[in-house]
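Sorry, explain these tokens?

___
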Amino acid sequence: MAGVGGVAGCLGGSGTGSGNESGGGGNGSNTSSAASSTSKEQKTAQASFFVFGDFASYVAGDAATANTLVPVGQHGHGWEPGPKLQGTVLDSDLFVSGMEGFQPWADDLVSSLQADNADVAVVTVGSNVELLEAGEGHHHHDREGGQHHENESAGNESDHHEHHKNEGGQHDHQGEDEHNGNESEHERHENESEGEHHDHEHDLSGGVDPHFWLDPLRAKTAVGTIEQGFTEIGGGNEDAFSNNADEYRSRLDDLHGSFQSKL
């Protein structure tokens, strides 16, 4: 997934607001806008998996850039990085990975960054998430998201991802047309990970299901962890990161409530 930064418009007013904060505000004079811009630094994050890249892009908004290292369609499992990947990460400010065992190449990269004392912050998005036991994930999702597959494909859950309608082609998934009756992003996350589900389970010790992002409440926890990572690298945009993360968590709460109402 190429650069997915600057998608603040995906989340409506909050994303636009963060862009204004990092750029000095849309109603200010050119002088004041330029002064504000020079006081803040555009940071860059690299994510190991498209879901983590999406989460990071929402937190980044217009205040930072979030990219996904794995090409579109490769998903991440079984994909091996080329020789230039470590250099790409070393040139960034933040590396966003999933959890130990989810992507072995990402584990190796984190170990290398730490051994070299690299000036790159590392965030493990699943570190604070209580993972479900393998097998329980499907049962849990059937229970809590009962009609998830059916309703999302019909467009009934599209409120959570209204950003795809508003972003004007800025997002990497611009060709998916989720809101014209095709699959929504949440369903895309689910469908794209289904083919890798069993392989990922074998990668993780303890028999847990790593696909926490299928549960909006667990996804909220991951967003909070990513927010901490962006706050650590700062650049003067901490308020923007906080506002963007709050907005996205609110969307996830709405999605969870929508699931619960259909039980």
Remarks:
- The two ends are 35 Å apart (CA to CA).
